[in-house]
User: Which sequence fits this backbone?
């Protein structure tokens, strides 16, 4: 509730200012009653001085369906500077409505410039306004709202304001007493790591970004012109990819594998980067900017550790100079407690967070007084101790992340950034040596070079700003902050559990593959790195591309695994209930393997067999072995012939054979023979007894007749 008076005050300010400084931004539909869109394409000078002219150039566009006559433009200036950042936010985000007839700002009549006699529907016309800054009513140092107002006469003959565009004008003439704030520019150089285990690129995205005019090329070029202003934060995977591309590469284009044609661009980019970072300390992110939260949930903590610990070494190989690891950039600006603990345990000492991830603890100060903008550093407690949290200022992050598709949007973003920093520097009660962290919301940012150039120059030249290193930020004073709830929405943004289960399965395939190889280093590291790339946070925004990468890695693992296989097929007949089963193992790979083999009955209760282990098969060779087995039961038994790793894990796809025992067939024959003999004996005995009975019955009669 302590912010309620400020919220009410901001609402009142918004109501007043909405009626005074309203405008239509570039690309937006005109507001109700507005018939002319005003577009500001340039505003100079970057840092206004008393002896310079304010020059604003742009265009007016008739957005109505009727012609507008006698069109002209003029400047309006707020009568007083803005008081705080809340007021600036209200002005920047107020509803777009036409100004009333008598606004509390002032029209600068000397600035009025005629456009033309008639502006037809959809037609645009340029304008230029130039006026000495001495002529402006800048009563005191501060941040003013300056507007370009379009005037004209509509088809009904109504004269007046037809549209307006507003922006901000920081005014700090020489001699102004203020404490400049330090800006630590965090400069991430990161890309989408779409490379499979063989180095094949899934698309041309990275080569194009490295080429002149590309996103990564612009980031390096702008930074090289302002080397003392920025703090380099690079993904070693990108550096590694650029180095490989520079030496020749293959890329998938419309499903076809072709030889890439931008190796020269990659070589130039690496050369430019090395030159730009010379004399600077480069900080490295975990390899491929792994989605640490998703990996931890999937039980892949070791991958997180590996991506952190191997990161500096990879970067040093490309840059040929020492680098510093131990920094992580939280995806979505937040991190959960357990992942924070894991990162700290793995060696991370600094984590970059959004402002809302660690808001300041509420104080008991007067709620009517706006709180000072704190330094961009905080203590982040973990299970292994406290690490540094670099807190990105939300206003500055929003400014550099604003739309920059046109010159007009770039000007608005630039002036918003300058106004934000100027208001921070003039906050009541602000002391010296304040330092803010400036950086994008996402590490794969795409600002325009024009915006970045102007902001970095302003950081060095503006009287209310100064450059600050990362070390200076780390030594800045810290206020109490609390960890915000991670949130189900942030969890949902992670790589999905289903996707990570596929990664887990691929990890198992890789473990089994390298376990049988004589020299795992020829294959293992490349696939391990590819699986780290498959866990990159980049695939949060490009899930289909991540799935394609993981599919290619899995396909490669399955293909390599299938090179070692069992050739045995058919039926094996035992002369008794036990015998030997011949098994042939083929190795079509390029290096020797050591495997085991086992017979698995289906069902297993009908087969007794001891697996064999330590079977070495040279590349391109076949090896035959015999396994002892005993079959229980007379029916044919299906048996899987399964290869094993030295540790006994199942390897590859088993072959299937059938075992038949003749022991039960012979036993059945003897039973039939015995039964036949017994039956014959019974028959003979029966006949013999019958004969005897007949003979016995005849003997007495013969005796009697003889006596007679």
Assistant:
């Amino acid at each position: 509730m302590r912010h309620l008076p400020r919220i009410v005050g901001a609402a009142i300010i918004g109501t007043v200012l909405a009626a005074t400084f309203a405008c239509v931004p570039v690309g937006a539909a005109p507001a109700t009653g507005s018939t002319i869109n005003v577009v500001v394409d340039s505003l100079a000078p970057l840092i206004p001085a008393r002896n310079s002219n304010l020059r604003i150039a742009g265009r007016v566009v008739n957005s109505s369906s009727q012609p507008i006559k006698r069109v002209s433009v003029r400047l309006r200036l707020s009568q007083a500077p803005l008081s705080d950042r809340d007021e600036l936010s209200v002005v920047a985000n107020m509803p777009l409505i036409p100004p009333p007839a008598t606004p509390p700002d002032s029209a600068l009549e000397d600035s009025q410039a005629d456009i033309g006699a008639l502006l037809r529907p959809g037609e645009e016309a340029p304008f230029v306004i130039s006026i000495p800054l001495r002529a402006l009513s800048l009563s005191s140092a501060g941040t003013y709202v300056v507007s370009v107002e379009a005037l004209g006469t509509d088809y009904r003959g109504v004269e007046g304001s037809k549209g307006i565009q507003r922006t901000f004008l920081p005014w700090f003439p020489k001699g102004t007493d203020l404490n400049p704030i330090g800006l630590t520019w965090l400069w991430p150089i990161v890309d989408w790591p779409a490379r499979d285990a063989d180095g094949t690129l899934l698309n041309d995205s990275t080569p194009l970004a490295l080429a002149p005019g590309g996103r990564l090329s612009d980031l390096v070029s702008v930074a090289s012109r302002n080397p003392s202003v920025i703090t380099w934060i690079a993904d070693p995977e990108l550096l590694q990819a650029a180095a490989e591309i520079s030496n020749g590469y293959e890329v998938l284009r419309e499903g076809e594998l072709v030889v890439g044609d931008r190796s020269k661009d990659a070589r130039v980019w690496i050369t430019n980067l090395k030159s730009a970072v010379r004399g600077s300390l480069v900080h490295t992110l975990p390899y491929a900017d792994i989605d640490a939260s998703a990996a931890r949930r999937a039980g892949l903590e070791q991958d997180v550790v590996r991506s952190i610990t191997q990161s500096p070494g990879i970067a040093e190989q490309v840059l040929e100079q020492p680098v510093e690891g131990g920094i992580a950039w939280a995806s979505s600006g937040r991190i959960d407690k357990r992942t924070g603990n894991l990162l700290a345990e793995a060696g991370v000492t600094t984590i970059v967070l959004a402002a809302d991830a660690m808001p300041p603890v509420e104080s008991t100060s007067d709620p009517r007084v706006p709180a000072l903008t704190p330094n961009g550093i905080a203590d982040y407690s973990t299970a292994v101790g406290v690490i540094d949290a670099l807190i990105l200022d939300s206003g500055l992050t929003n400014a550099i992340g604003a739309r920059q598709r046109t010159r007009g949007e770039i000007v608005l973003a630039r002036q918003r950034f300058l106004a934000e920093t100027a208001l921070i520097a003039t906050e009541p009660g602000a002391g010296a040596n304040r330092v803010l962290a400036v950086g994008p919301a996402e590490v794969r940012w795409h600002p325009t070079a024009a915006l970045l150039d102007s902001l970095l120059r302003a950081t060095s030249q503006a009287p209310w700003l100064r450059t600050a290193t990362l070390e200076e930020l780390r030594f800045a004073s810290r206020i109490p902050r609390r960890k915000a709830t991670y949130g189900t929405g942030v969890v949902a943004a992670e790589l999905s559990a289903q996707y990570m289960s596929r990664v887990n399965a691929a990890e198992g395939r890789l473990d089994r593959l390298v376990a049988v190889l004589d020299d795992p280093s020829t294959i293992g590291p490349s696939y391990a790195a590819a699986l780290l790339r498959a866990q990159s946070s980049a695939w949060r925004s490009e899930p289909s591309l991540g799935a394609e990468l993981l599919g290619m890695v899995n396909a490669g693992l399955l293909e390599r695994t299938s090179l070692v296989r069992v050739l045995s097929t058919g039926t094996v007949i035992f002369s008794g209930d036990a015998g030997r089963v011949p098994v042939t193992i083929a190795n079509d790979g390029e290096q020797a393997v050591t495997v085991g083999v086992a017979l698995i009955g289906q069902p297993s209760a009908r087969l007794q067999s001891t697996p064999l282990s330590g079977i070495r098969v040279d590349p391109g060779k076949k090896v035959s072995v015999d396994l002892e087995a005993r079959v229980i039961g007379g029916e044919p038994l299906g048996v899987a012939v399964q290869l094993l790793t030295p540790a006994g894990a199942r390897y590859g796809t088993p072959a299937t054979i059938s075992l038949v025992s003749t022991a039960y067939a012979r036993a059945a024959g003897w039973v039939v023979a015995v039964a036949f003999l017994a039956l014959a004996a019974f028959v003979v005995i029966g006949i013999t007894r019958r004969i005897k009975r007949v003979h016995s019955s005849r003997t007495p009669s013969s005796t009697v007749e003889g006596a007679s």
Remarks:
- The CA atoms of residues 514 and 522 lie 9 Å apart.
